[in-house]
Write a structure and sequence with these properties.
single chain, 195 residues, alpha/beta, five-stranded mixed beta barrel, 6 strands, globular
Length: 195
């Protein structure tokens, strides 16, 4: 019986070793020339670091409840948000992360919205079966359950924004996470002076 199990054990070890090598290479590639970004400066710095490795820290404001593939970071000002998507090594972001401070290593990605993209998104919204992955995710709570009219309003607002930009596209930036770590909260010690 041991002779029968030995080849299976060997194959299992080889597969485990091979899988771990891929994630190690991805992490090493990402940490080689990594840039540290902040939530506050993300929008202005992002165009310079597309497809490059970045570190960012922030507080998790929202995780998408449909699959947990996205989360949004804030840092003091909830009007500035950074979208983070799962990379190949991350299955999903747990909803329990909301309110936690996290450090993320990933690659900066650009999504270009042009007229063709908006037309395809509108066609998907108008189809009987909606596709949650279609469209631009802004991290607002409840965006997964938006009615068709709200999505069409968003598409029209983007069309107006595209027209006003004078460009053939709008750029939206996000981070595709390679890894992330929850940062433990440090409790402040209260010192009472004796009189």
């Amino acid at each position: 019986m041991i002779k029968k199990l030995l080849p299976l054990l060997f194959i299992g070890l080889m597969l485990t070793f091979a899988c771990n090598q891929g994630s190690k290479e991805t992490t090493e590639e990402a940490t080689a020339d990594t840039v540290l970004l902040t939530v506050a400066t993300f929008d202005t710095a992002a165009p310079y670091y597309v497809d490059q490795p970045v570190w960012i820290e922030g507080t998790v404001y929202h995780t998408c409840k449909h699959g947990g593939k996205r989360m949004f970071l804030v840092d003091g000002n909830d009007s500035l948000m950074v979208e983070v998507t799962t990379g190949p090594e991350i299955v999903m972001f747990d909803e329990a992360l909301v309110g936690s401070r996290v450090s993320i290593l990933g690659f900066l990605k650009e999504e270009r919205i042009d007229e063709k993209y908006l037309n395809e998104w509108e066609a998907e919204v108008m189809a009987p079966e909606e596709n949650h992955d279609a469209g631009l995710h802004e991290g607002t709570k409840g965006h997964e359950d938006q009615p068709k009219e709200a999505k069409l309003e968003q598409i029209n607002a983007l069309r107006d924004q595209l027209k006003d930009s004078g460009s053939d596209h709008l750029s939206f930036f996000s981070i595709e996470a390679v890894s992330y770590e929850e940062i433990p909260m440090v409790e402040e010690e209260v010192i009472v002076e004796e009189e």
